[in-house]
Amino acid sequence: MEPQSGLPILGTGHDTKSILDAIDTCGADAVAASAGVQLHPHSIRQLGWALAARNVALIMAPALTDIAGPRIHTQQVAGLPLIHVTTPSLEGGQRVAKRLFDIAASALLIIMSSPLMIIIAILIKADSKGSVIFKQERVGIESRHFRMLKFRSMVVNAEQQLKGLEDRNEGNGVLFKLRDDPRVTRVGAVIRKYSLDELPQLFNVLAGRMSLVGPRPPLPREVESYENDVRRRLLVKPGLTGLWQVSGRSNLSWQDSVRLDLYYVENWSLAGDLIIILRTVRAVFRSTGAY
Fold first, then answer.
1. What's the distance, CA 163 to chain centroid?
2. Is 123 helix (H, G, I), strand (E, B) or coil?
3. Which of the four, 15, 45, 78, 104, has the lowest number of CB atoms within 10 Å?
4. Which stretches does DSSP call E strand in the chain?
């Protein structure tokens, strides 16, 4: 029994006979070979023949990770199956289509949510002193800075109080998060739980500073700590929602957040954006990882 996964180990031999004996023992109907399998191509071919005789499928896993299916194409060259991976691109027609979708969708959402935004603004004003809208400098596409809009969910001097709370950070190291943040107002706790504080970002989307879907908009101090590969997040506009929003939000580790954002940059599609938006609706109502 493998201690970490709890799965039984039926054999460790690399020869075809040992593999077939293990298959016969468990009655498998498919065999998956990982990219790191220590088998000679001739042995794999023999194994394929033996599996075909048993009506057992053979699945080969390529050494590719975080690449969406539409970018992968298999082509036969001189009897050798080659995997072609298309270059990710967000230029020309794709960029125009994404921008037109952002304009139409954000304008519609602003109109539909206007009554709710007015109610939230009144409640914030009645609950605590200060401006209704909180403006914060964020880093957008190609490292351009912009002022991101949110409903104020904290006390006015929240930024000044941050240094005294950094030792209580429950975030993933780079991002500061605190479940019971004393700076959050009563109304702020409610609108943060359901991500209603982010509604003003629709105006950022309409203005072209953000997109409806994209990587999380980072703070300048976060970008300063980025490694070279993480900077690929800045190749597209940051999003009001994204894979990070529908995959756990504040519960994600820094590594998982980066992996999801880079996956989005590498595999963007309009259909994918629509799926993320639909998943966002469900994530908001569940309020998982929102604090």
1. 28
2. helix
3. 78
4. 30-33, 57-60, 72-77, 80-85, 133-139, 145-151, 211-213, 239-241
pLDDT of res. 276: 93
Tell me the C-alpha distance between 19 and 10, whole Å: 9
User: Would you give the end-to-end CA distance of the chain in angstroms?
Assistant: 40
pLDDT at 149: 97
Summarised one tens digit per residue, pLDDT across range 211-253 is 999 998 998 988 988 888 888 889 889 999 998 888 876 667 7
Q: Is the dihedral of CA 176, 182, 187, 193 positive or negative?
A: positive
Q: How far is CA 63 from the centre of its chain?
A: 21
DSSP state of 196: G
Those residues of the chain that have pLDDT short of 70 are 1-6, 11-14, 35-38, 61-92, 164, 166-178, 249-251, 287-291
Assigned token pair, 284: 């908001």
| DSSP output for 17-64 | HHHHHHHHHHT-SEEEE-TT----HHHHHHHHHHHHHTT-EEEE--S-
| Residue 261 to residue 266: CA distance in whole angstroms | 9
Strands 72-77 and 239-241, by their bridges, are unpaired
C-alpha span between 53 and 273 (Å, rounded)? 44
- What is the C-alpha to C-alpha distance for residues 66 and 260, in angstroms, rounded to an integer? 9
Supply 191's token pair: 């609108």
